[in-house]
Amino acid sequence: MVHLTTTDMSLDWLLAPQLRAFAAAGYDVVGMSAAGPHVPNLAAMGIPHVDVPGFTRSTDPLQDLRAFVQLVRLLRRMRPDILHTHNPKPGILGRIAGRLARVPLVVNTQHGLYAQPTDRWQRRLPVYAAERVAACFSHVELVQNPEDVDTLVHTLRIPARKVRLLGNGIDLDHFDPDRIDPAVRAARRAEWGVADDEAVVGVVGRLVREKGIVEILDAAHRLRTGGHPARIVVVGPADPGKADAVDAGAVRRAADDGVVFAGERTDMPECYAAMDLFLTASWREGFPRSAMEAAAMRLPTVATDIRGNRQVVDDGVTGVLVPVRDPEGLAGGVRALLARRDEWPSIGAAARTRAHTDFDQRTVIERTLAAYRSRS
Question: Molecular function terms in GO for this entry (predicted)?
């Protein structure tokens, strides 16, 4: 079984629990992507890695063609029984390459269509066309978001028999607030310079515009000048290689304005435990992992009203949905939850219950295994 992604980071950070579960179920699991610093982590888990050097996150058609040729050659040499593709580029190229290499079962996970029905047709047309063509080469389409199921079946006319709702999930034992020592919460807040009377509003994500970081920094300024006792803490790395990377100057100005940039972290349960509220302002999501983690950690959430966030945040129950690309809306959502401080325990409990019901990664693993078995 080969799982194909653009980078080894996705195999390590996003898919590792699934890869280990598939290996435990008796499959010989191989990760395939461009090689990077996460390959040793995969090896430590017992997951071999095959390098596809042509895979990059760029939009260079010639480079993509080279990657496609490499992929076909690799698959023909390896002759896997199952090819499971992820991410947009491997999802398009991989499904086609898998059938050309005569892989018996080609499965694709749709983590979130890169276009939504509300987008302009100039954006929707190329994305929908590419997905419609690539879906002709797969046997099973596992779709994380129910809104995308509707688009694939009714708009793109992909046969319903091959489209299955997968959902998304996390390790609920790992993201369990009851496992975190209160002293750890205090230590993280001290590290971030949080005053005793301040509420920590946590943000998790790369510093790119698509994650709504610019609007969040604007909202943070509005909250600060409005006298609201809230400290915005952003956990996540800079991503200077992306075209929409947030300007370093904007980050410096926000830091001078009181926003804390905690950088990339490996202690996420402890970071969530140090937060009081969670904030996500993404423009586009499939089924956001960080919002699920926040829910599992009993955090009331302010989120933009988009596909993905709507599946995680129950508006008015586990958090608040606000308009996308609207700094004042974000600030207003935070103000609304700050005013309901006495309700945070009940809101957080509802979020944790929702996580147990809908965001358990074991359900995702079992649905995927069922897809493999259905074609055996």
Answer: glycosyltransferase activity
Instruction: Quote the strand ranges of 167-289, DSSP E.
Output: 199-204, 230-235, 260-263, 277-280
Q: Nearest to residue 357, comparing CAs of 312, 321, 315, 324?
A: 312
What are the backbone angles phi and psi of residue 304, rounded to the nearest 5°? -70, 145
Nearest to 348 by CA among 310, 292, 309, 300: 300
**Exposed/middle/buried for residue 19 (C-beta within 10 Å: 0-12, 13-18, 19+):** buried
* DSSP letter assigned to residue 238: B
CA 112-113-118 angle, to 5 degrees, is 115
- Looking at residue 136, the DSSP 8-state letter turns out to be T
Kindly indicate the confidence band of residue 349, based on its pLDDT and cuts at 50, 70 and 90. Answer: very high
Comparing CA positions, the residue from 76, 83, 89 lying closest to residue 134 is 89
CATH of region 2-169+360-374: 3.40.50.2000
Position 163 scores a pLDDT of 98
3-state SS class at 369: helix
Whole-model pTM above 0.90? yes
Nearest to 159 by CA among 177, 186, 181, 140: 140
Residue 48, SS3? coil
Domain 2-169+360-374 and domain 177-358 have a common topology: yes
330 and 306 in contact (C-beta within 8 Å)?
no
CATH of 177-358, one of 3.30.300.30, 3.90.550.10, 3.50.50.60, 3.40.50.2000: 3.40.50.2000
290: which residues sit within 8 A by CB, 6+ positions away?
A: 204, 205, 278, 280
What is the dihedral sign for C-alpha 343, 344, 349, 352? positive
Average pLDDT over residues 60-71: 92
Would you kindly state where each structural domain of the chain is located, as residue ranges?
2-169+360-374, 177-358
CA dist 43 and 349 (Å) reads 38
- The 10s digit of each residue's pLDDT in 73-95 is 999 999 999 999 998 999 999 99
